[in-house]
Amino acid sequence: MNPLLKVTGLQTYFFKDKKILRAVDEVDLQIHAGETVALVGESGCGKTTLAFSIFRLLPPAGKIVAGSIAWRGKNLLALSEKQMAAVRGREMGLIFQDPSSALNPVMRVGGQIAEVIHHHFRQTHRMAKQQALALMEKVQLPNVTMIYDSYPHQLSGGLRQRVLIAIALAGRPALLVADEPTSALDVSIQSQILTLLKQLKDELQLSLLLITHDLGVVAQMADRVAVMYAGKIVEEAPTPTLFTTPLHPYTAALLNAIPRISFSRLDGQKEFKPLLGVVPDLTNLPAGCTFHPRCPLRMEECSQKVPSTFTPAAHRTVRCFKYETETKG
After folding, report:
1. How far apart are the first and last CA of the chain?
2. Is 207 left (phi over 0), alpha (psi -120 to 50) or beta?
3. Cα dihedral: 206, 87, 94, 224 (round 10)
4. What is the reported pTM?
5. 114: helix, coil or strand?
6. Which three-class secondary structure state does DSSP give residue 132?
7. d(CA 135, CA 73)
8. Do 212 and 229 form a contact (C-beta atoms < 8 A)?
9. DSSP 8-state symbol, 245
10. Domain-by-domain residue ranges, the chain?
11. Please, what is the angle between helix 109-121 and helix 157-169, to 10°?
12. Quick one: residue 147, left, alpha or beta (phi over 0 = left, psi -120 to 50 = alpha)?
């Protein structure tokens, strides 16, 4: 079955002050109909830039320098801006990370939802409003007539997030990209938003690309996981497989860094192994494997060569020299 979205060899760089920031570097990613794929990694690994590249929403300093992005077999990079505008929002919806900055502060939230409906379906303002109110009810907003006429600052973070979801769904897309949809919310509201996304995905038969650094969210939501580090996908696997047998040292380190409550300790402290070091400066990446300065399993060749993507098992890929011999064998 052909994927809905197929990203191949994508390279997105930022050019500023004679420096090149390699935010997305040789990324391959596929999403099939009805599938939930999680894109995980620390802040600064290029996850949001990959999403913005797919939607062609990069700032002026950002350029896609190589690769392709195919949507239902159509190369999005070859489309004019007018043609891309018909895909963006209509066939693919994006939930931005921060609802406080994503919503227009001087426009009532109902009007922001209705505007999308009017733009893509050429509805009258009255019909667009009726459909917007119905969509607000679908994302479980309370008292929709009052909220329709409210400004973003009058709503809580959880309500603003639901408004963003409604905007992303207003074009009736086949793919929903959610960029850290719960990062600005407290724990109880996070759970509500995740449950809502799961319900909407099933009800509307959507595909979902979930961008997050929260592995608990991944375990709850995703069919498949792509792990990103310093602009590259370093491992990809079905979710249960990745959690039980991580292959890349970075994936293992992320899983080991999840706090766990130890019942053997009377003080109730959480035991975990912190991931030492930080994501490298993307304008000055280390030679070889970019993770090798932090890797407990590094070998001599790790600092000399960039590892290729190996396939050590079915439905699994990994960028690590440890699996080169196994793959060739």
Report:
1. 29
2. beta
3. 50
4. 0.92
5. helix
6. helix
7. 30
8. no
9. S
10. 5-91+173-328
11. 10
12. alpha
What is the spatial distance between Cα 12 and Cα 227, in angstroms, rounded to a whole number?
Answer: 17
Q: Of 242, 59, 286, nearest to 295 (Cα)?
A: 286
**In DSSP terms, which residues pair with 63 in a beta bridge?**
13
Do you know the residue count of the chain? 329
Pick from 107, 217, 77: nearest CA to 167: 107
Cβ 48 vs Cβ 211: under 8 Å: yes
**Contact yes or no for 273/68 (Cβ under 8 A):** no
What's the Cα-to-Cα distance from 100 to each of 96, 151, 156, rounded to whole Å? 10, 11, 10
pLDDT in single tens digits along all 329 residues of the chain: 789 999 999 999 999 888 999 999 999 999 999 999 999 999 999 999 999 999 999 999 999 999 999 999 999 999 999 999 999 999 999 999 888 889 999 999 999 999 999 989 988 889 999 999 999 999 999 999 999 999 999 999 899 999 999 999 999 999 999 999 887 677 788 888 889 999 999 999 999 999 998 898 899 899 999 999 999 999 999 999 999 999 999 999 999 888 765 544 444 445 667 888 999 999 999 999 999 999 999 999 999 999 999 998 888 999 999 887 655 54
Distance, CA of 109 to CA of 167 (rounded, Å): 9
Tokens of 115: 């505007």
Question: Residues 77, 69: contact at Cβ < 8 Å?
Answer: yes
Which 8-state DSSP code applies to residue 222?
Answer: -
Q: What is residue 45's DSSP assignment?
A: S
Q: Which CATH number applies to 5-91+173-328?
A: 3.40.50.300
- The DSSP bridge pattern shows strands 310-313 and 36-40 to be unpaired
The amino acid occupying position 27 is V
Q: Give the Cα separation of 72 and 271 in Å (integer).
A: 45
